[in-house]
Write a structure and sequence with these properties.
Largest sheet: none
Number of helices: 9
Order of helices and strands: HHHHHHHHH
Number of domains: 2
Shape: elongated
Number of strands: 0
């Protein structure tokens, strides 16, 4: 059983994304405790303090007054919109855009994935970013591989294998 998540204040600079992943992991780990939307939202409200708690109380007041239908999807969207670090996402993308291959494919992917935790690129945009960073010698190792329809994770595995072969 996972340990209860820490509280979240909601101050600028607080790492909402990391906290939110921990909260969602906790909820998914114990679905029997979170079958009811209201109970889930109340539980999260109990984790919030200071600015975040004020936001939660205001949102709950509007829902209870019938201003909108309360749902788990809406709550997730609202809390994410309010507390995610939009500038942090842009900063992470800028850092990810500077990553280059420097002789170690694992290191390159570790950096890309670390920055992408905040930048949140997916699909074709992430594939293009990755492919643009590869040297010709790795691309040549992959010349017989059809990448059509491959997921990002499948593509990373193929490139990692080609990179390791090139590095030997």
């Amino acid at each position: 059983m996972l340990k209860d998540p820490k509280s979240f204040e909601g101050k600028p600079g607080d790492d909402f994304e990391a906290w939110w992943v921990i909260v969602q992991t906790y909820i998914h780990d114990q679905p029997e405790k979170f079958e009811d939307t209201s109970r889930t939202i109340y539980w999260i409200g109990g984790l919030l303090t200071h600015y975040a708690q004020s936001w939660h109380i205001q949102l709950e007041g509007l829902a209870l007054a019938g201003k909108f239908h309360r749902s788990w999807t809406r709550y997730q969207n609202d809390i994410t919109s309010r507390f995610e670090d939009k500038e942090g996402r842009d900063e992470a993308y800028a850092k990810m855009d500077k990553v280059s291959y420097k002789g170690d494919i694992r290191d390159m992917f570790t950096k890309i994935q670390t920055y992408n935790d905040n930048a949140q690129l997916t699909g074709a945009a992430l594939k293009i970013l990755i492919l643009d960073r590869l040297p010709l010698k790795i691309l040549e190792q992959m010349h017989t591989v059809d990448m059509t329809g491959k997921s990002v994770q499948e593509m990373i595995e193929i490139i990692s294998k080609a990179g390791r072969m090139t590095e030997k």
